[in-house]
Specification:
With 338 residues, this protein is α+β, with helices and mostly antiparallel strands. It is 26% helix and 25% strand. α1 (9-60) runs antiparallel to α2. It has a domain at 145-329: Methylamine Dehydrogenase, Chain H (7 Propeller), CATH 2.130.10.10. β8 and β9 (223-226) form a beta hairpin. Residues 29-147 are annotated as: Disordered. InterPro entries: WD40/YVTN_repeat-like_dom_sf, WD40_PAC1, WD40_rpt, WD_repeat_GAD-1.
Length: 338
Amino acid sequence: GKKARTFDLEAMFEQTRRTAVERSRKVLEAREREKEDQAEKEFRSQCTDLSASASSVTGAGSTLTPRYLDVVGDSVSDEDLTGPSVQSQTSAQGPAEATDDDEDDEFIGPPLPPGFKDSDDDNDNDDTEEEDNNPVKKIPDSHEITLQHGTKTVSALGLDPSGARLITGGYDYDVKFWDFAGMDASLQAFRSLQPCECHQIKSLQYSSTGDVILVVSGNSQAKVLDRDGFPVMECIKGDQYIVDMTNTKGHTAMLNSGCWHPKIKEEFLTCSNDGTVRTWDVNNEKKHKSVFKPRSVQGKRVIPTTCTYSRDGKLIAAGCQDGSIQIWDRNMSVSQVF
């Protein structure tokens, strides 16, 4: 087959640069010649005017001797000339020509072709590439603020889907609401409350629509608040004296985690130290919708420490205390252990 043509880009750039420099040199030479011709014409016109004025004065009368002319033969003395001398003209023109020459020296011709790089440009490009490859530089940290929740550990954060509001919770039992649009320079929360009394906040999450908030604390009952912090529902507490957790209406031990369903805005999920993962409906606070019980390889009960939905909401996953990750079909109770 035919071989592909190869091009030496560096040679092409070098040839282009030489051509540009040569063209600029020719332009400068042409400008200098034009200036020299113009100066010579002006000098000749001034000499002609001087000779004409001298002849007119001598022709007016032989008795009149011009004070500013000293004729010796055909030469005129420079000391008696009252007009501008040739040296003064040349000295006056000299600085201007020098400045023009300086400007011409700074003129380097047309710009270099794209892609031509000097050693300094290579160094600059290397620095910019290093900055671009640095992941820290990609963080948009040019504008930042510090929100002071309290004096104790902040254990939960929840961001509104629109990004306009933030909710924080901590070990001081407080839940604070922050509104970025209505915040002033003091950077204070517009509401602070303790929805779970003396229980530490474990998890906070806005629903997919952003109208309600799931609050998971250290007690056995999860709560749902509206955007302004007013209670919407509270999960029921289960019976501690029933051995089979499937027959209880709610959790009987401390909660560990919770999250909203990604598609169904009324459904959410919680897991607890009682060894169960339960789904709930906001409109029914009397009983859970379904319950899942993680089991170890030996069939013993294990405690789920965190739980979540799949992206489409069809699967439920829980990370357990024995290091396993167990997944259930939302409509079935059979689990798969990883």
